[in-house]
Amino acid sequence: MGQRGGTGMSILSHGVARTGYETKGYFRSPDSVFFTFLFPMLMLGIFAAAFSSRGDIGLGPGSSDHVSVAGYYLPGMLAAGILLSGVQNLAVDIAGEKGDGTLKRLGGTPLSPISYFLGKLGRVFVTGILQAALLLAVANLAFGVSLPRAWSAWGTFAWVFVLGTVTSALLGIALSALPRSSRSATAVVVPIVLVLQFISGVYLQFSMLPAWMQNLASVFPLKWIAQGMRSVFLPDGFKVLEQNGTWDLGWVAVWLVVWLVVGLVISRLTFRWIRQDA
């Protein structure tokens, strides 16, 4: 990834300006808005409608810890939203910009790669915050999900959200180098993201998955984002359903930082304004 001239302030200001441009472009793309912005809300509604007739989800007879179906799936949908906005959207988007010549044109301008990255990251943060706020509002107002009242819970939500968002965005930039063309980007990226959602406790109860699948999911960041979100929105007793019988927030932070570094290093090594095989 080549370096461009300019002071830190100019790079930052260009990154902020790029964030505005990227965000406007995102909301002008109906397919991106549907499949990455509105999709978690749609899935939450489907799960709530399909399974609410069975009653609340609890820990078994005699336990006072129970939660509605919508309340149970809310953490997973928040985690999925982070993954979709960061990994899926950026990987497909940047691969498309490589294919249609956008990156080649940007390479001929004074725009720094760092400013370009900041614009992408800023867009993911803006859309992610809006998505999470809308998802929480829908869950609370439409499905009656009670939201946490303790500031400590919202503090946990904040750092899991920020760390998960940065990690997902960097991994999305890194993954954009994998598709050989813009046409194959969706076919390459979407199955990866979909499989991760199924094995990471987003669509299926994590405790019901076989041990080998839980171990596999534990290697990837989505499982840890979802687990961190469950620690915020589910009753504390539900931690017994986690792989180690605890929320493991320390490990949530460690694994997300590890994947953040992996995404940063791969992005640094592979990003080019022009494909080397072009």
Describe this structure in words.
- This protein is mostly helical.
- The protein has one domain (8-54, 65-270).
- It is built from ten helices and two strands; from the N terminus they run ααββαααααααα.
- The protein has helices at residues 8-27, 30-51, 69-99, 102-107, 113-143, 151-175, 182-199, 211-217, 221-233, 249-270; strands at residues 57-58, 66-67.
- Strands 1-2 form a two-stranded antiparallel ribbon.
- Helix 3 (69-99) packs antiparallel against helix 5 (113-143) and helix 9 (221-233) runs antiparallel to helix 10 (249-270).
- The radius of gyration is 19 Å and the shape is elongated.
- The protein starts with 7 loop residues before the first helix and ends in an 8-residue tail after the last helix.
- The model has no long low-confidence stretch (mean pLDDT 91).
- InterPro entries: ABC-2_transporter, ABC2_TM, ABC2_TM_bact-type, ABC_2_transport.
- It is a multi-pass membrane protein.
- This is ABC transporter.
How would you summarize the topology of this molecule?
Layout: H1 8-27, H2 30-51, E1 57-58, E2 66-67, H3 69-99, H4 102-107, H5 113-143, H6 151-175, H7 182-199, H8 211-217, H9 221-233, H10 249-270
Antiparallel strand pairs: 1-2
Helix pairs in contact: 1-5, 2-3, 2-5, 3-5, 3-6, 3-7, 3-9, 5-6, 6-9, 6-10, 9-10
Subcellular location: Membrane
GO molecular function, one term: ABC-type transporter activity
Organism: Sinomonas humi
Number of distinct beta strands = 2
Q: Quick check: average pLDDT? A: 91
**Which value, in Å, is the CA radius of gyration?**
19 Å
Q: In what range is the share of β-strand residues?
A: under 5%
Main sheet: strand order: 1-2
The figure for the number of domains is: 1
Sheet bearing the most strands, described? Answer: 2 strands, antiparallel
Q: What proportion of the residues is helical, as a percent range?
A: over 70%
* Class by alpha and beta content: mainly alpha
Count the DSSP helices. 10
Instruction: Give the CA-based shape.
Output: elongated
Protein name: ABC transporter
GO cellular component, one term: ATP-binding cassette (ABC) transporter complex
InterPro entries: ABC-2_transporter (IPR052902), ABC2_TM (IPR013525), ABC2_TM_bact-type (IPR047817), ABC_2_transport (IPR000412)
GO molecular function, one term: ABC-type transporter activity
